[in-house]
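Intended use. Records such as the LysR family transcriptional regulator entry shown here are meant for training and evaluating sequence-to-structure methods. They are not intended to support clinical decisions.
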Amino acid sequence: MLNNQRLRYFYKTVQYQGIRAAAEALNIAPSVISRQIALLEKELDIPLLERGMRGAVPTEAGEKVVTFYMKQQEAENTLKDDIFLLKGMHTGKIILATGVGYLPIVEKVITSFSKQFPGIHIKLTTANSNEIISKVADNKAHIGIIFNPPSHPSIRVHKEFTHPLKLFCNRQSPLVNSSMVPISFKELINERVALPDHAHGIRQIIQRAEQEEEIYFQPSLICNHLQLLKQYTLTGGITFLPAFMLTDEDKALIDALELQQSFLNQTKTQIISRRGRNLTPATQLLLKEIIKVMPEQ
């Protein structure tokens, strides 16, 4: 029987396109991964990675190992899900991966669901867009809630909501009464800007807009805590957030202005799972409850 840890290290190396990147993701030394891959190649008596190429390019045999590992993981998760089905709605585990901005929306659903089904353990993790896609695709999360993700062959979209990206600013800002609304990036070039990091869906869509306008922000603050980004506007800064994040309580101090680029008004929130994964009745019910409370716009 093949060593499962070696298979996992090899899979992660291909997934992250390099031993060093995989080591950082797994929080281990690169030498550990190199040694385990070498042992796997020795065990199979065939090279699994192309030598002398940048990144981690699998050989034909390496591609078959990746496929084998993914099928093995899927079979294991299917078995767990089938056992969960036999147990019904009384026991089990659901892992939900979400962006931080959705926490105020889903927290009531989760607490209510947990009260109704105390035997079902819910694990809630917050992550950036790239991490959420990875968790769901790798069967590390049953459900994902993600902002404006790229398409992915392993991802199934259960529901999509149009959540426009808006410019958040202090209501005292001259931008609020500007004749230039909807706002172009050119009007914001001298503003103090706060943004998430590059792995976040919001930052990725802003980068696209920067490239189209050929105007690039130098953020004064980089932070993935969206509530902090919103608070940043109270001291005169600006940020970009989905419109639903402006609560009734916020409206006395913060405004959300329309942006000029049309695609920024068409950004999406998606509720996702792994394509082909059998969701248990409990997971399906939680997913439906999340969809119910998600704002339409």
